[in-house]
Amino acid sequence: DTAVSQTPKYLVTQMGNDKSIKCEQNLGHDTMYWYKQDSKKFLKIMFSYNNKELIINETVPNRFSPKSPDKAHLNLHINSLELGDSAVYFCASSQRTSGSIGEQFFGPGTRLTVL
Amino acid sequence: AQSVTQPDIHITVSEGASLELRCNYSYGATPYLFWYVQSPGQGLQLLLKYFSGDTLVQGIKGFEAEFKRSQSSFNLRKPSVHWSDAAEYFCAVGHFNKFYFGSGTKLNVKP
Fold it and tell me: Which residues of chain B, if any, have pLDDT below 50?
């Protein structure tokens, strides 16, 4: 029973293409996140949704557009892919408690390679 | 601004030896602190967390961590390392809706 799942696991594409990554969690959490992990393993938050509402939108190019159709799903669409977008993208979820943060559960990651 | 520092990029220990991975944070209030482990090609798995109370917390796989407010540290320890512990370890601070991750420490285990 996978808690946080992502598809696809690997994505290889050409520069300029548009691609999407999907994330689903079955933990009943109300908050979901997208992180980018670069080649040096540094993890940086990109977006977060709480109850389908965007609550964190870090300095990310507007080519990246998250969408949360419901609390259990958070997708990431990327337009006009660039070489620098190559990274591992992690989805995570958590349950907010008393306005603060709970532990985050991570998906297995999507390795995006832009050629 | 919140920040997390893991001063050791790589650490190599012999199997059976003890381990301590360092983590320092910069944060104005009582932090929510976490340690995650990432095996090659895998996602992040929570090892342990500190929210409040006893400053020595126990986690999975025999790991523990100690919160020291005076030193702004949350170091991870294990008394006897196993070869399967070889992985990347991340310290994180939670603040409202955000996690701030350290840059990670890669642990190699010598037979």
Answer: none
